[in-house]
Amino acid sequence: MVVSCFKRHGAKGLDTPAFELKEMLTEKCGENFGLIYDLKDQGGELLSLRYDLTVPFARYLAMNKLKKMKRYQVGKVWRRESPTIAQGRYREFCQCDFDIAGQFDPMIPDAECLKIICEILSGLQLGDFLIKVNDRRIIDGIFAVCGVPESKFRAICASMDKLDKMSWKDVRHEMVAKKGLAPEVADQIGDYVKCHGGISLVEQMFQDPRLSQNKQALEGLTDLKLLFEYLTLFGISEKISFDLSLARGLDYYTGVIYEAVLLQTAAKAGEESLNVGSVAAGGRYDELVAMFDPKGHKVPCVGLSIGVERIFYIMEQKMKASGEKVRTTETQVFVATPQKNFLQERLKLIAELWDSGIKAEMLYKNNPKLLTQLHYCENMGIPLVVIIGEQEQKEGVIKLRSVPSREEVAIKRENLVAEIQKRLSES
Amino acid sequence: MVVSCFKRHGAKGLDTPAFELKEMLTEKCGENFGLIYDLKDQGGELLSLRYDLTVPFARYLAMNKLKKMKRYQVGKVWRRESPTIAQGRYREFCQCDFDIAGQFDPMIPDAECLKIICEILSGLQLGDFLIKVNDRRIIDGIFAVCGVPESKFRAICASMDKLDKMSWKDVRHEMVAKKGLAPEVADQIGDYVKCHGGISLVEQMFQDPRLSQNKQALEGLTDLKLLFEYLTLFGISEKISFDLSLARGLDYYTGVIYEAVLLQTAAKAGEESLNVGSVAAGGRYDELVAMFDPKGHKVPCVGLSIGVERIFYIMEQKMKASGEKVRTTETQVFVATPQKNFLQERLKLIAELWDSGIKAEMLYKNNPKLLTQLHYCENMGIPLVVIIGEQEQKEGVIKLRSVPSREEVAIKRENLVAEIQKRLSES
């Protein structure tokens, strides 16, 4: 589902190695370097395991001197943090990334990234969702007009990023007590981070007497206004919230940032409330490729990442709640016999089904009982059974049984594959 | 292609972590432990990266006390060996594994594994291929009747495994000079390893006066005879060669082993000869799960592994040779305009295409030139272009252009999606 959406948007698949040079990673990941898994020194370069798919993509672009690329990548990443299984958070997890690299007219690729998130989350039917949007330049502008010293921008931004897990009171405490911010500066930030809304909030911020004097903030607001225009054309603006509390933890973002969250429906009695944090996120990182390029050539990029484990966790919980049973295989037809010594006939028949592209199984027994075979189909949710026995063989037919309805019909052997394909295409 | 074949045979997908406990891996991989990548000790258990997907699968079965499972897995594995890019051999590579675990009647799952290899290699159209088959018990029987001391079985087997890269003369030298085997014993082995053929060779080995006295060899030959019977029913026996020189490097095999090789067609003048070794391999490993189980419960297993990189390498070479161009994206429709200030219309239109499941792209520019847009389609192999301009907008139509034929027709705006879908389904 996710990959087919990426392909629908013209991306090509790219695979990069799990290893990166240790120094490449530690330099680029800011406060997160403690989370990196290093390989043991067994000779050769010092290597680490990638902690996301963005840094390797930027390194790949720089190494291959690529100025433009639209790629998707599905791969594992590793972070040495405490796993919280209840939130679908592990030390090894799978990310699905989509990125657009290249110098283009503003906000067109950015809008496409948000469109993709909407298509994927709608397609997965996870319930209602909201994409929070902000811009790093607006955050920096706010910090500047509130009087945060420039040297503290990144540290204060990292505190702000915790607002989805901590209250403002606690975040304010961290800013003041741990990061040495003046309390009155923190309070001014607090007034801003409370704000969230749609395009009207962007207009409102343009009118803010202090912010409108800040060059960076103005650039961010101008882009956001354009972004909202494009999102309206895409028909998704009602899914987007301009949220001044959104910060995103990673250092490499330079412009628009976003994070999709699922909206909780009021939990029914006895139902566990799902709290999985963000299920998709991303943003613009215009400087990262240049950091890997010996000559510092810039390649502006924007991208998104889908959190597979969290989405699986939610889907599992939903299915548990609804009592739905998930099939783990896709087998369409089971080859059965009521008779002893029919292994040869079964093998010939199943090979014919496989060769016709039909998903088929049989039991690996010389003489299985018919009941065992039918039970297997019911347990596994296999919809069709073909039954071959002495009687059928004499008459040149095969019995075709529907597992749900238990109806059986005799089909001429030579018409069997066509009949199965017809039934499968109808269902 | 590969995964859909695995699903056709009723397997469910399984993902295991890239890390395994270091001790779990080093104990199980015999002579290969020098190839394992270890993680740096950063606190917690000592971890290594998996070097295949078989050992983690066996560990998974034992840990979860599973007695039966048919699973496939596509994942990366890592080995610290010298990469030889010319053979598609890297330190990080992707394996596609299919395994059947459980106690079943003999050779039915084994035959299915060989059928799967045939289906995949035929489906990929890599040219003619052959699957070499042997049995570890026959190898051990040969060693026993030739007079190899039992303590040297594994070491001599490891030498034998090099027969696909080295001549018998060099292998014999290694057996005698490095592994201390008596020259006359090596020569007797040499007489056996020359043999390869079909079912008739199995019959011939049954008549071998020495081998037919060896219990292990007899068991192996009995199973191989049954296997050939099933392969004949599957219609693939002519692809199989009983080859007494096949040994397989890994220690964990206990019965049937196999390895698929592509048959070289006589290289045309100027064409590089492709030598990539085996493209698929596997075998039966009945003892591996028990090694991970605290109580030593056995779960017999048989499986196969497809070497993706090698297959990609061959396909690439073939395409280069034939001058075919590979499309890296699947984009079906490009949204273009000959006019300035048509970004809004383009954005609305492309969102409509995406929402209808059509793979569509446009340039991320406010005012791209029409020629640039059409060139992009030709370069990327995009078959259809929709063109919207002032004229078309007035008339409520959209131009649909076929890139290969350059034919254009005007379609009513409301019929556009249906017309595109019709054209795509026809091509």
UniProtKB/TrEMBL annotation, chains A, B:
GO cellular component terms listed in the entry, alphabetical order: cytosol; mitochondrion
Binding site for L-histidine: 52-54, 79, 95, 99, 248, 252-253
E.C. number(s) listed in UniProt: 6.1.1.21
Catalytic reactions of this protein: tRNA(His) + L-histidine + ATP = L-histidyl-tRNA(His) + AMP + diphosphate + H(+)
Segments passing through the bilayer: none
UniProt entry keywords in alphabetical sequence: Aminoacyl-tRNA synthetase, ATP-binding, Ligase, Nucleotide-binding, Protein biosynthesis
Domain Aminoacyl-transfer RNA synthetases class-II family profile: residue ranges: 1-338
SUPFAM superfamilies assigned to the protein according to its UniProt record, in alphabetical order: Class II aaRS ABD-related, Class II aaRS and biotin synthetases
Class of the enzyme per the UniProt entry, highest EC level: ligase
Gene Ontology terms for molecular function: ATP binding; histidine-tRNA ligase activity; identical protein binding; RNA binding
Gene Ontology BP terms: histidyl-tRNA aminoacylation
Family the UniProt entry places it in: Belongs to the class-II aminoacyl-tRNA synthetase family.
Identification of the protein by name: histidine--tRNA ligase
Lineage, opening ranks: Eukaryota, Metazoa, Chordata, Craniata, Vertebrata
